[in-house]
Amino acid sequence: MITAQAPSSTANLGPGFDVFGMALDACFDTVSVAEEGSSITISSDDDIPLEYTKNTAGIVVDMMRTDFDIKPGVHIKIRKGVPAGYGMGSSAASAAAAATAYSNLYNLNLSLTELTRYAGYGEQASAGSIHYDNVAASVCGGFVMVHTKPLRVINLRPPENLTMCVAVPDVSTPEKKTQVSRGVIPEMVPLCDVTTNISFASSLVAGMCTGDISLIGDSLQDVIVEPARRHMIPALDDIRNLAVSAGAAGVTISGAGPSVIAFADGSIVDIDSVGEAMREGFGNHDINCKIFPCKSAKGAGTVQ
Amino acid sequence: MITAQAPSSTANLGPGFDVFGMALDACFDTVSVAEEGSSITISSDDDIPLEYTKNTAGIVVDMMRTDFDIKPGVHIKIRKGVPAGYGMGSSAASAAAAATAYSNLYNLNLSLTELTRYAGYGEQASAGSIHYDNVAASVCGGFVMVHTKPLRVINLRPPENLTMCVAVPDVSTPEKKTQVSRGVIPEMVPLCDVTTNISFASSLVAGMCTGDISLIGDSLQDVIVEPARRHMIPALDDIRNLAVSAGAAGVTISGAGPSVIAFADGSIVDIDSVGEAMREGFGNHDINCKIFPCKSAKGAGTVQ
User: Could you tell me the pTM of the whole model?
Assistant: First the structure.
């Protein structure tokens, strides 16, 4: 039996819709695989589909098993640590852990890009379209940029003192939340907005490379996707103002939301104060939230 | 009398339309300013307008003189080294040199961002809209990313071994070339193309920061502006293929064209061979060209 763990993640980071991802050590999914029987079976104590064609990890393993023509069946045991439906890369974490565990079970020696590709099939099931930002982060760790034609993951180690805080609101989210929140994004974008997002995405990468957390914070701006999703998170402006007052360098929606993530220089800012400010922001709108202070995480790996 | 020199530059670098610029030591404009009379007069041996309201350097100096309420007039002497109308940032070089010279004449102690802002007014006269990519590069040197609201220039030093080659075709260009070539760009962009350009722009910055010239070359891709301008440079695909065969890491249109620029790792590639390949590419379309092998330049500065 092989067990692998993969971290939660945040996608987009403001301007980088479907391009940027960052692995977060806030929480982890754990997936064990063991050769068993002649098909794919799944067990879990969590409230997730156990039919393998409807389960993120099951879909990933099914695809790998078919591609590598592996005859024996497999039993998959899933322990969810990442809350599903809140923009913390929950399905991506299961997919990344499943791809990593199964690859190790059969010594497939897959590259991180290949693991990302397989994990992406699992994402497709939950989001309705393949996007690799969360899975690339969960597989590779650190900060990632994704090219899709062809698939390529560029991986950077974020600054050591970069600290984050995710606020996960206690609200109900629609069944196919990612699909719904992708549906509100405009299909056509004015050229001036393209230029603005490219400028922020570029300077965000420069900040990651040079360790300039203030520049990272200033670059968490998005004039394309956030305006279309803002109505889904009415507390966002409040949270942003309060978190920045508490020392955050910048605040943005985590993935498709409804979680919100703040970035700060942990060497000069108390991240717990930032978290309390975010709690107050949601509180002003009568919403409770869970606070996850975190750092960038390593990518998926096997555990004992 | 104060004399300043400012380098040629390339804008866009593939995916970074109106955002990316790089100063090039291929050629320079030189602008001298001296207090004289009570208005602005201009002299030059080059074929440029000498009326200050129609001259890039004159417009810049006029704006600074007004803003700082400087009563005495000034004589501006301009020596053009950067060929105008070919995508090498000719007007930006004059504007940057003028802003730098005039700022020094009156010890205005302007920041690089302020100098960029003034130089931008000169660009506006030639391009029909303010864009800061070339002027920021000419003022600051190295590789720049520009935010516009508010204006902010993020400046990176490119890898030491990054070498470039500009091929300037011997073709006539329209009077208001930049304005014309901006006119062909679509005003609305499909979201999937936005994502693609953001991914390439981001990885180009990562390549600049980490010294990965191969990644820089792979990232010189643009699915928004280049497809709209490609018909203006029919030799582009030929040049690209030949230059890459000669060792270039990547090739793109320089600014609004019609010049083409190749990027290479000068420590392992003979840039003159890349230049000859580019010459052959234009030659296949019966076009002669001048070849400028170059490196990243320092920004505008005073000279004796």
Answer: 0.96
